[in-house]
Amino acid sequence: MASSVPSIRTLSKLAVGGAQILLGGGQTVLGGTPQTCSNPQLSCHNTTIVQDLCCFNSPGGQLLQTQFWDTAPATGPDDSWTIHGLWPDRCDGTYDANCDSTRVYSNISAIIQSFGKTELLNYMSTYWKDYNGDDETFWEHEWSKHGTCISTLEPQCYSDHTATEEVVDYFQKAVDLFKSLPSYEWLAQAGITPSTTKIYTTAEIQAALAANRPGVSVTLGCKSGVFNEIWYHYDVRGSLQTGEFVAADPDGTKSTCPSTGIKYLPKNSGGTTPAPTTTGSGSTPTSTAAPGTPFSGKGYLNVNTGGVKKGCIISAGTWYTSGTCATFTAASSGDGFMLTSSKGKCGVVSGTFTCGTSVSTAIAFTAVDGKLAAGGNAAWSADKVASGSTQVPVFAGADHSTALEIVWQGL
């Protein structure tokens, strides 16, 4: 259940004053919210309004520690997955992105070094890798797209804020979580090792990881049946900096691996894993689109309900069943693609698929099994079945009575 929060944030200054707070891995965050917030609530589970969003992550209440397995080209050590990012989801499979343009930085390494975090930077240089070799740009993207959307990292949450210290806390926490999630080791313990000949099942992979995080599943990412990403989901009691991360099930249907026949290729083996673009959000990385690839270039957004094509999306983002379909342009962006129509850029506004001037921040959509996905969730819905030229709003998620799928028809 999504958390109930006020429409305007009430962010109180908290008295910590630059304290260094120990984390489980022996590293430190720089400070921020106190170790013990007053009556901290678990994100994505509260039933009352929380005004102090320095002690409660909202609206991005579920945090995802995401990992890559790159083989073509290979990144990082041969016996370790690498870091993709740390992403806040809205507890329902959707997410915000690029939330504060005033805190977009192009000098992440320099920021980390300025706080004396040489060990952190060295670790990132080994385990937080861009497949194109441009780690710095990758880190900048992860912070600006995801870090700026985490409420407990806002400058107001620091009683004696030093510019950019929240950036260091973001990367430190992402690294500390990654260290606690040794995917390669956990898979190997169950006999799941990289191979050019072996194949595995989703159930086997989920069981191997659940043996170390009982009671919850993860999101698995595949490209053309090749295993290349894992997302570990958490709800948080308190702030990102000092709160308790509680393992949680995924907040939406996002896995892109088949149930059987999954390949887990070795690094440096000449494998053919499609190279991901950097990077993420609440979504699986995608390869550079080739001509004719779904959600590339120009096309229509057709609507299926009950497995049957029934109309299409028009330029403002609504659905109807007769008349001319709108032409959309899909352009690669980060880990997915942006959509635009004649009305302007497209996004999800108040839970509704929308194109036009009301979309202040376009989101990067992705494709899941060939279907349009927002926040990695390919479920869409409407309050009723469209008929004729009557326009019907389309909502992200499956919360409304008529379940929909949105598929691409290239032009």
TrEMBL record:
<dbReference type="InterPro" id="IPR018188">
    <property type="entry name" value="RNase_T2_His_AS_1"/>
</dbReference>
<dbReference type="InterPro" id="IPR033697">
    <property type="entry name" value="Ribonuclease_T2_eukaryotic"/>
</dbReference>
<dbReference type="Pfam" id="PF25488">
    <property type="entry name" value="RNaseT2L_C"/>
</dbReference>
<keyword id="KW-1015">Disulfide bond</keyword>
<keyword id="KW-0926">Vacuole</keyword>
<keyword id="KW-0963">Cytoplasm</keyword>
<dbReference type="InterPro" id="IPR001568">
    <property type="entry name" value="RNase_T2-like"/>
</dbReference>
<dbReference type="InterPro" id="IPR036430">
    <property type="entry name" value="RNase_T2-like_sf"/>
</dbReference>
<dbReference type="InterPro" id="IPR033130">
    <property type="entry name" value="RNase_T2_His_AS_2"/>
</dbReference>
<feature type="active site">
    <location>
        <position position="142"/>
    </location>
</feature>
<keyword id="KW-0456">Lyase</keyword>
<feature type="compositionally biased region" description="Low complexity">
    <location>
        <begin position="269"/>
        <end position="292"/>
    </location>
</feature>
<feature type="active site">
    <location>
        <position position="146"/>
    </location>
</feature>
<keyword id="KW-0255">Endonuclease</keyword>
<dbReference type="InterPro" id="IPR057328">
    <property type="entry name" value="RNaseT2L_C"/>
</dbReference>
<keyword id="KW-0325">Glycoprotein</keyword>
<dbReference type="GO" id="GO:0005576">
    <property type="term" value="C:extracellular region"/>
</dbReference>
<keyword id="KW-0540">Nuclease</keyword>
<dbReference type="GO" id="GO:0006401">
    <property type="term" value="P:RNA catabolic process"/>
</dbReference>
<dbReference type="Pfam" id="PF00445">
    <property type="entry name" value="Ribonuclease_T2"/>
</dbReference>
<feature type="region of interest" description="Disordered">
    <location>
        <begin position="261"/>
        <end position="292"/>
    </location>
</feature>
<comment type="function">
    <text>Rnase which modulates cell survival under stress conditions. Released from the vacuole to the cytoplasm during stress to promote tRNA and rRNA cleavage and to activate separately a downstream pathway that promotes cell death. Involved in cell size, vacuolar morphology and growth at high temperatures and high salt concentration.</text>
</comment>
<dbReference type="GO" id="GO:0003723">
    <property type="term" value="F:RNA binding"/>
</dbReference>
<feature type="active site">
    <location>
        <position position="84"/>
    </location>
</feature>
<comment type="similarity">
    <text>Belongs to the RNase T2 family.</text>
</comment>
<keyword id="KW-0732">Signal</keyword>
<keyword id="KW-0378">Hydrolase</keyword>
<dbReference type="GO" id="GO:0033897">
    <property type="term" value="F:ribonuclease T2 activity"/>
</dbReference>
<protein>
    <recommendedName>
        <fullName>Ribonuclease T2-like</fullName>
        <ecNumber>4.6.1.19</ecNumber>
    </recommendedName>
</protein>
<dbReference type="GO" id="GO:0016787">
    <property type="term" value="F:hydrolase activity"/>
</dbReference>
<feature type="domain" description="RNase T2-like C-terminal">
    <location>
        <begin position="293"/>
        <end position="409"/>
    </location>
</feature>
<dbReference type="GO" id="GO:0005775">
    <property type="term" value="C:vacuolar lumen"/>
</dbReference>
